[in-house]
Structures are given as C-alpha cells and as structure tokens.
Amino acid sequence: MNIGLLSKRTTMLAGRIKQFYEELGHNVTIFTADNLSINESLLEYDFFILKSKRLIYLYAGFFIKAHGVPIFPDPDLTYKHKYRIDAHYLIQQAGLRSPNFYLGSKDVINNFLSKKAPLVSKSLMDSGSKDVKFINSNKDLSTLDENVVYFEEKIKGTHYLMYFIDDEISVSEKPPLSNEHAPMTEITPSQDMIEILRKWREYHDIPFGHLDVIKEESTNNIYVVDPGCFPEFSNWKRGDDPCPKICNIILKRISNIKK
Amino acid sequence: MKIGIIVDRYHLERKTQNLLKYLKSKANVSVYIEEEYLLNSNKFHFDEDIFFVKAKGDIIIALVKMLENETSIPVINSFKGIWTAFHRFVNCTLLKKAGISVPNFALNPEKIPPSFDNYISKNIIDQKTYAFNPDIEKLDGNLHVRDQRSLREKSFYDNYFFYQEFIKSKWEYKIYCIGRELFYYKQLPVLVNPNKMESRKKIDEIPELGEMVIKANEIIDLKISSVDFLKTKDGKFYLTDINSSPNFDYIKKGAKIVGDYLIKQAKR
Fold this sequence. Notes:
The structure holds two protein chains of two kinds.
Chain A lengths: L1 E5 L5 H12 L3 E5 L15 E4 L4 H12 L4 E2 L2 H8 L1 H10 L7 E5 H11 L2 E4 L10 E3 L2 H5 L5 E6 L3 E9 L2 E6 L11 E3 L3 H14 L3 E9 L5 E7 L13 H17 L1
Parallel strand pairs in A: 1-2, 1-3, 3-4
Antiparallel strand pairs in A: 5-8, 6-7, 6-8, 9-10, 9-12, 10-11, 12-13
Helix pairs in contact in A: 2-3, 3-4
Chain B lengths: L1 E6 L1 H7 L1 H8 L3 E6 L5 E2 L9 E5 L3 H13 L4 E2 L2 H8 L1 H10 L7 E5 L9 E4 L11 E6 L2 E6 H6 L6 E6 L6 E7 L2 E7 L8 H4 L1 E2 L4 H14 L3 E8 L5 E7 L10 H14 L1
Parallel strand pairs in B: 1-2, 1-4, 4-5, 7-9
Antiparallel strand pairs in B: 6-10, 7-10, 8-9, 11-12, 11-14, 12-13, 14-15
Helix pairs in contact in B: 2-9
C-alpha cells in the first residue's frame, strides 16, 4: 500500500513508523512543511496517518477525509484535541473532570486576576506544554504576547503523564511545565487512573494516546488538563517498543474505515 | 422576547447600530461585547430566546461553541458556519466537493508555486477585521496578486500560502442571504476599484447564483451570509468568497429584514 504520513518531522516516532511499514513491504511518504502541497495528488494514496495537529496538517486531513481517502486519527477528533474549548467538552463528555477555564482580553482578566489567581495560561489553539505559564499577578499577565488569553484554574497537586495503547497503560510523574520528552519517573497507576483511561478510550473510541492529569492534593480528585491523540510515547515505560503496536492498530482501523 | 447580540467593538460601533435600534423597538436586547466579555466555564447562564453573532473573534466563537454545547438557544450563525467561512481552504474544499464552482485553489509551502499561472494569494484564515490589501505583480504575462495580510501572517502557518486562481471578470457579484431571502448586487472588482461602494448596483435575481448561494449556505451551515462571485468571459460563475458576518446596512431596510428574521426564528 501507499501510505502518507502527515508529520512535522521525519525523525523520532514518524521515522520509526515509516521504517515499520516499509519492512512490511509498504511505501511510506512522510509529508512535512517542506513537501506537503495540499491538492489532488494526495488522493493517490491508500491511506494517511495524521501525526501532527498543526493547522496545515489538519487542513490536509480535512481535505483527505472530504475526498473519502481513509485517514487516522480522524481530523475532526484531532482538531477537538487541539482547540481547548472542544477539548474541555471531550473531557466532560467522557465523564471526567477538567479545570474551570476563562477566556478574555488581558484588560478584562486584569480586573479579576487578584480574586482568581493562581491561574495557568495556555494557548487556545495548541495542546501540549508549549506556552503554558503560571500566572500569579498582573505582572505575570503583562509578559504574555497574546491579547486574548485562555486560562485554567490552577489545580494544586501532582502532575502525571498517562499513556495508553488499547488497555496497556504507562503512567509517569511529570515535572511541572515540562514537555512529553522530559525525564520522568514511572509510577504504578492507581485504580482511579486506570478507570479514567478506560472511560476516555471507550467513550471516544480512541485506541491510543495520552492524558495529562493532575491529582489534586486536597481532594485526591484527578483533573484532565491536556489530552493528546498521537503522542511520541517518549516516556512509555513498559520496556517494549510502542511503535509496532500503534502501527498494527492503525492498519486495523484503516481496514475498518475502508469497509 | 429577549435577543442577544454577540459583537466586537468595531462591528458594534460601525455595523450594528441600525439593527440594535430596530430590535430595541421590538424586544429586549442584551449585548455581549468581545473586548469586555469574560468567558467563564463555571458561570454560564443565559435566558435569551435567540443570539445573533456579528463578528468572528476568538472569544466570540468560543462563546458560540459553549452556547451550542450548554444551551438549546438558537445561535445565528453557528460555530460551524462561522469557523468554516473564515477557514478559506476548508470552505473551498467542501464547496468544490459539493459541486459548486470555485476557482482552482491550493495551499502550498512558500517555495512551491501553485499549478495555475494567474493567481491571487489570500490570507489563510479570514478572521480579523482588516481590509484586503493587494500587491499586484505581472510576471511573464501572468498576474500574481498577493494580499499583504498573507505575507504578514505566513510565519504563523509554517510559511504556507493559500492561492486561488485569478478569474478575470468585468463585475464582482455579491449576494446577501438572510434566511431564504436573497439580495443581488454587482460592483467593479476591488482590484479595479478599491472603493467597492462607488460602483455597486442592485441587480435582478440571477437564479443560477441563488441556487449556488442556498446550497453553499446549507453545506457550510450559514443562515445569514454574503457570497461573492466572479464571471468569466464565457459566462461561467465562480464562488470566490463567503462571509458569515456581512454588512447588511448595504441592503435597503437591511436592519429591519435581519431583525424580523431573528424575531421569527426566536418564535419558532
């Protein structure tokens, strides 16, 4: 099969996915911002993998889906992971907790910050740890570049990165404000963590991905602060390579879409 | 009856005053101004019978998304409609797929030109309130028009450009749509005369365009819109732009028509 892989880079997990499928005899083209022109030429592929949530790749995903070429994960679901407001509803629909959030101009936020701080500012259109900042004062607020700011109430507790591939899970304690690739210590997941991942996976029919969560110190409640549908699995701690597992899942999903 | 207007300061001051005046004579009106509004997920209660959205900023579309998720109050236009209208590549893809004639288009990295010779490069996301600002170049007999907005914003989008094939047309046709009512106008293309109102004329119905407008609005999920067309020498129309937040003050009694439409929708 001819497989297209929409990814911002050709290395790391994207490179390993390419190698895996090529060893099975498939042809794989990785489309990055250097070679991705979004037009009818993409429709010659048998299926696509949407590895990146960046807007250009999402546009390619919408184009591919609109023309009936199978693509995984679904671009609409990927967009909902990326857009904070949609992500909030994805979390709530699965019956999970997410922090209260605010969206407003800096001037408006300035007026109520003293009552609500500490807050966490995040980019409205980008999940992940990029651009995440703790905001305790008006001075912190003035350092933000954007005029319209998305904030979440800060949950005081321990941060965890929880990966899942079907019912296999790997959970690590995550340093505050770090990204997925930072060194982390594996923990044994608690029953409520296992239950959260089950609910997420089953409600949205997502076979692999991750949830960033915070276990609140005062209540032990777990809040989902960032979902992701195609992590790098840099901190997968189960001692095996997650790449073949996710590649096989994708093949299975694609064959279901084709049916 | 209570009607909510969701608007930014620019549209409130310049494009919504007549509507507000008309609606206030018929109903209770609440106004939510983007620059003054704090969206709070924990405090979200509304008692309006309908909302009308006259802008498309980030806070506004987030509020629309939440209204759709948390209430059963109708919102005109919907999140899907507003979002799809300002993502040019997405609406061109959906319209073309549905059989509506749109000019050839492409989304390419900076170093890869489009496959068509004459083009106009537009901003990828048409969300902000600033005007089209063309930079025109003739190269080997081909016309290349670049909107300054697309040049300024390219770094936000991995140095990509949205290209639309240039359609040479004597007139630009603009159809306003309010529910099922259509209002037909034509004007000189902005590349010929940037002051679009100077040449604008009301014209008779063109059924072919009416059908395309109704179909486009259904696909994109718009109830109120304006849709632009260009016409080739051999008489073929191409849909070049669709706008979820049109200035209906350009229509005779536009504020009344929109106001009555909103009141009717609220009563349903």
